[in-house]
Amino acid sequence: MAAVVIIGAQWGDEGKGKITDYLAEKADMVVRYQGGSNAGHTVVVDGREFKLHLIPSGILYPGKTCVIGNGVVVDPEQLVRELEELARRVVDTAGLRLSKGAHLVLRYHRLLDLLEEERRGHGRLGTTGRGIGPAYLDKVGRRGLRVADLYDAEGFRRALSLNVALANEILAAAGKETLDAAALAEEYLALGAKLEPFVADTSLLINRALDQGARVLFEGAQGTLLDLDHGTYPYVTSSHPVAAGACLGSGVGPTRIDRVLGVVKAYCTRVGEGPFPTEIAGEEGDLLRERGREWGTTTGRPRRCGWLDAVALRHAVRVNALDGLAITKLDVLDALPRVKIAVAYRCRGQLLEEFPTDLASLRACEPVYEELEGWQTGIQEARSLNALPAAARRYLARLEELAGVPVFLVAVGPQRHQTICRQEVF
Ligand code: GDP
Q: Domain holding 148: CATH number?
């Protein structure tokens, strides 16, 4: 296997960071293909915790090439901050490559993001307020600025002043503080100079690496149910976390992808607003949040917690054409006497086995649960499936059956070595 795509099969925060970090060891190159600094990964290496927002977690392996692809939206301030933080902690960042075609998230995007959420009031989407949505809006609106534009100072100043004028009109009308385009341009050009050593034509770089037989890992941010087209619209992100996004967001054709793996948390969480059929209110939900440390990496917001949803998982298997699953956080369920999985929905008197993607139907869905026995034993030390209690193995087997694809990996703790590899991914 040369080209492997890792995607989140739920609402994001599945523990992709840990799985990509684990697989990155065998990869020559790690590529991020969508999202922005709203996608936080937490990776623990030798007891040291790293929170990465833009830079692929593969950077924690010395000498690895890590690509921020054209499909990512990049806040230059954030990226420089992340690079400086890694340098401070003596992590070598020389392997980072930033696509010339990646769009920039600029200060007005952040201000517009906050303003838009404020205006939505109760109908808010629960965005992270990082300007990601407005940056993608500019991209689609063909007025976005890209990394390459930072190296054409005159052109950058001109385009920025037009965009800032437009943003200022909206901000002023809402009684908000406006921006000084000229000062902003100089700030960004200075940040551009700091980023210049990393800038490259990354589609060329990745395709050449594949030509030479390199192993490339494509790392999705967020998850399938937050995909702009295949998620629970409009409570979604503005990009394509699904596997097809890997091609668009990196400049690699679909026939080059060899394998797609979905990361699935042993239960479900969701940040922000929007339907979540298997959400658990009360004590059991609190227990999962406490044990799973379910607070957002980027925002610190508590995540909504619920049971594993096999209906949503089958949707993810289909729209990503998953070859297999990586199950994470199985150990979080250790304390529970019984574990539930939603195997279907009841919706307006009908039994649904397929995930409805329109809001009204989804809101009307009640999960139909299957209950399995819990294992009530610590499993963090298990390094093979056989070392797991029988009830945990039954849970995994049932999951495989419901998803219709095999489990490749099982994570039983946050550390790199707390991983069971059942089938090699590369
Ligand atoms: P991501 O964006 O999908 O990587 O998800 P997050 O980084 O937001 O959440 C993953 C969190 O769970 C991090 O704090 C990880 O260290 C932790 N984690 C990942 N896998 C496991 C696991 O198998 N068990 C436990 N207990 N924690 C895990």
A: 1.10.300.10
